[in-house]
Amino acid sequence: MYATSDGGWMSVGALEPRFYARFVELLGVPEWAGSQHDRTAWPRMREAFATRFASHPRAEWEKVFDGADACVTPVLNWSEALRDPI
Length: 86
Prior knowledge:
Elements: E1 2-3, E2 9-12, H1 17-27, H2 42-53, H3 58-65, E3 72-74, H4 78-83
Antiparallel strand pairs: 1-2, 2-3
């Protein structure tokens, strides 16, 4: 999970290569596309992802990832979760 600029959170589960590729593309960090399985890069990668997510509010990231095959979704608060149809 990554914090957004407004205190919200986004959850990322892009484990398969095609989801990961779409994730880094939509997040705007394509330079990390080849580093998915490079464990030595993971700390820097997490930092880059965190910085990027922190640059915009959750609602903007929701729009970016809405309908995209990237395994990224907002973390809902209790009241949002109760209203969510899924």
